[in-house]
Amino acid sequence: MEVKRQRSAEAGRTRGKGADLLEVLGVSLKLGLTSFGGPIAHLGYFHNEYIRRRKWMDERSYADLVALCQFLPGPASSQVGIGIGVVRAGLLGGIIAWLGFTLPSVIALVAFAFLLQGFDISGAGWIHGLKIVAVAIVAQAVLGMGQKLTPDRGRVTIAVMAAAIALSWHAAYGQILILAAAGVIGLAIYRTKPAKGPDLPIAIGRPVAVFCLALFFLLLILLPLLRTSVEARGFAIFDSFYRSGSLVFGGGHVVLPLLEREVVPTGWVSREDFLAGYGATQAVPGPLFTFAGYLGAMTSGIWGAVIATAGIFLPAFLLVIGALPFWNGWRNNPKVQGALTGINAAVVGILLAALYDPLWTTAILKPLDFALAAILFVMLFFWKLPPWVIVLAGAAGGMLMEFM
After folding, report:
1. Would the CA dihedral through 370, 372, 375, 378 be positive or negative?
2. The domain containing residue 321 runs over which residues?
3. Of the candidates 149, 150, 178, 181, which has an alpha carbon nearest to the alpha carbon of residue 166?
4. Stated pTM of the model
5. What is the number of structural domains in the chain?
6. Which residues touch 270 (CB under 8 Å, ≥6 apart)?
7. Span 154-198, pLDDT tens digits
8. How far apart are CA 245 and CA 137, in angstroms?
9. 242: region left, alpha or beta (phi > 0 left; psi from -120 to 50 alpha)
């Protein structure tokens, strides 16, 4: 009888873990099909789906995870998604969350590489409508996170100063320095606050974390050295895209000049095809780093796309998995919590700055653009319609405005 009960309990645990993995896959795949607008907008989509609707994580934990991923090199929004998947369903959950969020845009961009080379879609009305969708999504994220993370004048001041500096200083490491300065200010002002908040359930041991961090640095050092003696094109592709994913801070558009230097001077991709692929990337949902799939396909077909995509995202995996097991101890330390209080306020400021530039400045070009953005915001924030409805409405609105 006891054996039967044990077998029943083990089966229940298996079914529970399998159900969690399927849930992560379904939600992340939906986000991968509907998350337009770049990394800042993705954080808004994640906040709406994972935090507001499903409550997989509390507001403070989400903000802390965003702050951690902003500090790490690589695609910040993808790293946040991986982290949420790990919290929900372990290491395999993180992998599945990344696959669901990433595969739709990789498949679409590989199709662009084979079927739509040189076709200019950057000025299409529906693409402009999707940029306006991103404005509404980020506006909702700024408002929602601001209410939670900047409740007093000290944190409002930090957020506004962070936004002002982010808008006036566009250095590659500017965002990292802003967050670091906000952490120092938060440590000075809020360090006496008691630690609070639930621990993130991280089912990854510290030995695994240390291994991932060591592997990250080992690959970063050894791949360029071995490239001179390994003649395989696939090895060179992996090295180029791994370094690009390892050395970019802020993610998103910041990676484009790094990729251009890797693929255009080498003759792998022409400048015209590079720009055509960049235009196509704006038309698909998901992380901008999936541009690597297009470039890899242009270079060496399907296998090139697989190698380039794996290479550019592998650093994100290694760094997130390496940092998360240490995160609960750091974030619940009173001093660290004080620093995170300032950092979280700065994250709101950085989101506010991104709402203006590049989103507002590239999407809101005339009164009709503002009108559409306002309508979409009301649909999202007050009517609480699902994001895919907002995406379709924005694309349709953008197409309609072409005739007005």
Report:
1. negative
2. 1-115+124-404
3. 178
4. 0.73
5. 1
6. 264
7. 999 999 999 999 899 876 567 778 888 998 999 999 876 555 566
8. 26
9. alpha
